[in-house]
Design brief:
single chain, about 260 residues, alpha/beta, 5-stranded mixed β-sheet
């Protein structure tokens, strides 16, 4: 049987009891951490928790070789990943393959940034639009993909908030910060052939280390957040659309947004 297990947001205490029990009982455990990872726990602490060694796979081994599915035909095998395992489309492909090959499978969900970041931002979850990701630019060619900026604009046109995820290159120990993400958006803005909707005076929310005891949620104008120290990874951004009074009060009182955002509500 194949088990797809989500580890949650930040450390090994986020792993569900069901997940721990499953990992203790399977024959072999594999891990991929290129789509998400836990910053609050060492790899060894997870091994100590479940009482067995974990084999870490790179992207090629996961997406092209998938040896864990071959082994799941004759043994109980688990693949673990940070967050919720089905947020990454790569993982849903594994379930399709299991169904085609007649391999039984079970998914054990974990807490995800997709739900936790909007929640801790204080904005109403049903008013979020399409999620977008800001990738690291190609500085050699001065190439900054415009698609994240355009996705935010499309959401704003529909009066919907945007969750902006930031690039992770775990194999390089490289994690985009909120500051870098906002700087990228401003660089894109400066190179548009029209007047963009996201400017230096646009309200944004920077969110760092969701799920940890020292998480930060800071709201403010982009021009101010660009220089704010959010500390270590992982980071993400929320760009709000029009605010309900309850949302605005949360951003002011909890996230430190300028009180003037309440004036027109």
């Amino acid at each position: 049987m194949f088990f797809l297990v989500g580890l949650g947001l930040f450390d090994n205490k986020d792993i569900s009891l069901k997940g721990i029990e499953t990992l203790k009982n399977v024959d072999k455990v594999y891990a991929e951490f290129f789509t998400s990872l836990l910053f609050g726990s060492s790899f060894e602490s997870i091994e100590d928790l479940i009482g067995k060694k974990i084999t870490v796979l790179d992207r090629t081994q996961v997406e092209e070789e998938s040896v864990f599915l071959d082994e799941a035909e004759d043994a109980d095998v688990a693949l673990i990943t940070g967050g919720d395992p089905l947020i990454a489309t790569t993982h849903s492909d594994f379930l399709v393959e299991c169904a085609k090959r007649g391999i039984d499978f079970q998914v054990i969900h974990g807490s995800s940034i997709i739900s936790s970041a909007p929640a801790i931002s204080g904005l109403q979850a049903y008013t979020f639009g399409k999620v977008t990701t800001i990738p690291f630019p190609d500085l050699e060619y001065n190439y900054f993909p415009k698609s994240p900026y355009i996705a935010i604009e499309e959401n704003l046109k529909m009066n919907m908030h945007t969750l902006v995820l930031l690039d992770i290159q775990a194999h390089k120990d490289k994690y985009m910060t909120i500051n870098e993400g906002l700087e990228n958006l401003m660089t894109i803005k400066d190179n548009l052939d029209y007047e963009g909707m996201i400017q230096e005076d646009t309200l944004a929310v920077g969110i760092a280390r969701v799920g940890s005891a020292d998480n930060i949620v800071k709201a403010g104008y982009i021009r101010d957040l660009i220089d704010f120290d959010f500390g270590g990874p992982l980071h993400c951004i929320v760009i709000p659309s029009d605010l309900h009074i309850v949302e605005a009060e949360y951003l002011v009182e909890v996230a430190g947004a300028p009180r003037e955002i309440l004036d027109d509500l």
